[in-house]
Amino acid sequence: EKLQYLAYIIRRGIIYYAMMATRRELLLKLAAKVSNNQRATAAIATGLAARNGLIQRSSRSFSTAAQVDPPTATIVNKAATADLASSLDQAKLEGETPKRSRVSDVTIQEVLKAKHTARWVEPVIPHNATVRDAIVTCISQNISGMMVVDRTDTMKRQQKCVGLITSRDLLRIMAASIKDGKSAEEILNQSVIQQMTPINQVIYGRPDETIGMCRAIMAKLGIKCLPILVDGRVEGIITARDMSEFYYDPKDLGGKKNYLTDVSERVGLSENTSMAEPPIFVRQHLASKHDPLFINVGTAEYPHPFKSHDGVGANRRDFGPDDLATDPSLSEDAHFVSTVEMLDESGTNMQKLLYMGVADGVGSWREYGVDPRDFSRMLMGECQNILRDASSECSATGGTACTMISPAELLARSYKRTKEANVIGSSTACVGVFDSVHHQLHFSNIGDSGIIVLRHIDSDVASALQRNRTTPRTERKSDLRIAFVSQQQLKSFNHPYQMGWTGEEVVDKNSSFKQASDSCTSSVHILRGDIIIMATDGLFDNVDIDDIASIALKWELDNEFIDNGGIDTRRRRWESGSSLTDISAQCIPTLAEMLCQKARENSLDNTVDSPFALLAKENDIMWSGGMPDDCTVVAMHVVGKPANLNDV
Question: How many percent of the chain have pLDDT more than 90?
């Protein structure tokens, strides 16, 4: 047995040395091919040989008692690295062109250094500046964003950052102020500190992150400026333009040759230039642009499967032999759906607005003797009361103040009433409103509840990034895809931001309690036929988004809204005036029920990792299977006619 083991070790050693020799030979050939300079080639070979020698000496340690001394290994490694770097520098000095890295792999630190070397501009503006000052600073210094700094403490040399304001923010301020009827002086004299993004909401980057990573962050979050943070100090602000220009040398941007190659044939448009007609698939949507859209809504709410009136079981054994919980009154989630009439933007015509919202009460309040259901139900209930009061007042008086209440404002008013009622607790919250005239879904979200929009996007007209390239077209069942996913807000894994009240105001800036003004607020353009899902984390933690789309597709097929996954039949039906609105109104609750049921099934399945389990492992937390929790789903189907029209 000892001889067999020794023979095994020898074979392993021979194979290993053969692999290392082959690797060394290939590297030497590659180095010789890249560099025509003999000295550089020799230096590279020396460096590789030194590194290879260290590896060989280390590899002997598994079969003998000899070990490489760690300090010696470090010295050899550093020496080899220094030789290699020196050889490359020498090659560069002697006229050789080093290989350029992919621009997406370059670190932001290099971009920032190049930017500051070319032109140093301090991107700051004092907190007491006005919008007028901010506009002048942007134009004069040719910058897109500025850190707002507090300079009141003159004893300290450091400038304390209190927020960020960008050129896009300035345009939004002007647009909103013009809409409100403010004069030019009133607009320009507004304080920057009232309009900036507060420092606790600023998205930042790190110097060791790459251009590719920062571009992805900026694209996902829709931001133009990214402050770079180093040891608690903002070293500069990076923009998309900075990252694009980094790849080019100054000689690539100017000069006669570059002008003739890149610019001369692209300057100036002829007098006969006109805008092209929109593509056919766009014209079909534009044709119905001014036709209002309507939404049919269905809701479903499941409590935690191991919940009873006495508490929540940690698992099935702890819960006992009873049937799983089904009573919605046990759920710590809450929701509302309200249709109200308010004045439109003109202030003359009444329009119907559909509001909806979900809230997820934080269960840990139970440890302090507080019912987690109280806060979430009060928050959603007051949203409904505020809308009812506003609609009644608008119908009675017709006042100009009875225009649409934004989701963030609705959350703020409801939160204020909840605190005034001294309801202790906290919850996440997501509130939205659908504007049927402008086909817009506006929403505000705090925490890990959210909204997704599903849409049929035909591969013939979809962009390259939206096309399904994983499944052959002949095997594809549908072109139903994820058109939008709302941004969630978490302090850390499984610790979402929330609205809450402890009986007194929380002044800790690092608290997980947030105001309505801190919510992620956005708008989504909605098309006829879209399916909108608003839900608490009980759905998203247990059902993958692609699986949600598959369930929605099954619902469409079962109710014959589409034919075999295609949308041609649906388009012809719409053109003939049939929208199946009544069927949609009757069946949409079934979709909400299907999603809740799937979430419960997955939450009890310990054999397949849920989205929650996968994310837990990415955060070094051991978790397998599903995540039992309350689940609330508000499912919406966008149709072209209101219900009760007796469509054929």
Answer: 44
